[in-house]
Amino acid sequence: MDTEKSILSLDTKGVMPFIVEKDYSLYKQKAKEAFKTLTNATGRGSEFLGWLNLPQTVTTTQIKEYNNIALEWKNNTDVVIVIGIGGSYLGAKAIIEALIHPFAWEVGTNGWPKVVFAGQNLSEDYMAELMDLVSNKRVSAIVISKSGTTTEPAVAFRFIRKHIEERYGKEEASKRIVAITDKSKGALKEVANKAGFRTFVIPDNVGGRYSVLTPVGLFPMAVAGLDVAKIIKGASAIRDVCYTEGDQNPAINYAAIRNLLYSKGKKAEILVNFNPKFQYFAEWWKQLFGESEGKEGLGIFPASVNFTSDLHSMGQYIQEGERFIFETVVDVKKPGRSVVINNDPVNSDGLNFLANKSLDQINKMARTGTMLAHIDGGVPNILIEVEQLDEYYLGALFYFFEFSCAISAYILGINPFNQPGVEAYKQNMFALLGKPGFEELAKKLRERL
């Protein structure tokens, strides 16, 4: 089945050997019911559905504001540090890694500041090495937090704010730090107001992992030199497709297929790419599905691999290991560049049969051969393709997976928009670090150590 080739195609032929049509029809009906729950806002967590209409509500004025600061920083900044964790950085990281030349600084072809990330870990080495990077570079920062008290980004912001204020003075620092936070409350909002930082708002009705099309994702993308309007255009185009009822809706069909496979014992979904530019897109995807579905003892476990690299490591397990997995391959039909294999008169490596073929031709045959081998080995395969790798199609992929994820979670009967389990480690960490109010928990935890 191929759907909406002009924007996104969903090919499920690699699943059909593992299912029967009667079961597929049943799960398509479940998915259609979940689709109505989502679009009618009648399900659990419906107060967090603001992301559904973001492609239609992001204004040209907002985009202009992002671009104006981006152009300002282009002229006075070498490195922009984006401070955030989870959904506060993964979307921006995904698209920047996908679309910015990986060696732009080395070859000097970009012209925009280098965007790096902080606040996504508590590693002392990472923070020290980041400060080494910016010690002799012109630096600006984007700090992203709804509350301003999430430990990892709050700690990172302390270091980075201190560095910028000591280096430039508080007045200039106020032009070099932008806060993306709540519209009216929270520690970060209070700090931003007092220091005079420019701010953008995280909408109240959009959760972190669904925030890539808010300032959380869009402003860092603009600072990296990406076309934000094109991202929104792609998301808007696929939104129209996702809102279409019926059997040709790829979001409904993807949600149906993955839940049917789950019911058959396929407990883990591996997102596969054959282009390393998708590596961090997979990290964004894992958070989206992991936090949305992994609760109440339910949910498909999301994992990822980079092929062909991981065919030489994880490939053995996928081919012949325990059969609880299925794969979803995300790929691009047309590469951005062309590199052709030359003919070697000696042919000592025996590769002249590849002469005059592009690397993409070879990679596509590796993809086809791998998918067929894995299907033969008992691993269902789904293929999702977009025409090319650019802002338009990545905007479409972001929205497609968000919409599909919400449908999929509603099929399971769970709330796609909360993450109660995330708090467990925080409570223990606060207690062990001596945060006031956690003394009793600290005592109990230390008795266990």
Explain this structure.
- The chain is an alpha/beta fold and 449 residues long.
- It has two domains: 218 residues, Rossmann fold (3-Layer(aba) Sandwich); 179 residues, 3-Layer(aba) Sandwich (Rossmann fold).
- The protein has a five-stranded mixed sheet with strand order 1-10-9-7-8, with helices on both faces. The protein has a five-stranded parallel sheet with strand order 3-2-4-5-6, with helices on both faces.
- Strand 5, helix 9 and strand 6 form a beta-alpha-beta unit.
- Helix 12 crosses helix 16.
- The radius of gyration is 23 Å and the shape is globular.
- The chain starts with 8 loop residues before the first strand and ends with a helix.
- The N terminus is likely disordered.
| Proportion of residues in helical segments | 40-55%
CATH homologous superfamily label of the largest domain = Glucose-6-phosphate isomerase like protein, domain 1
CATH C-level class of the largest domain: Alpha Beta
The tally of strands reads: 10
- CA-based gyration radius: 23 Å
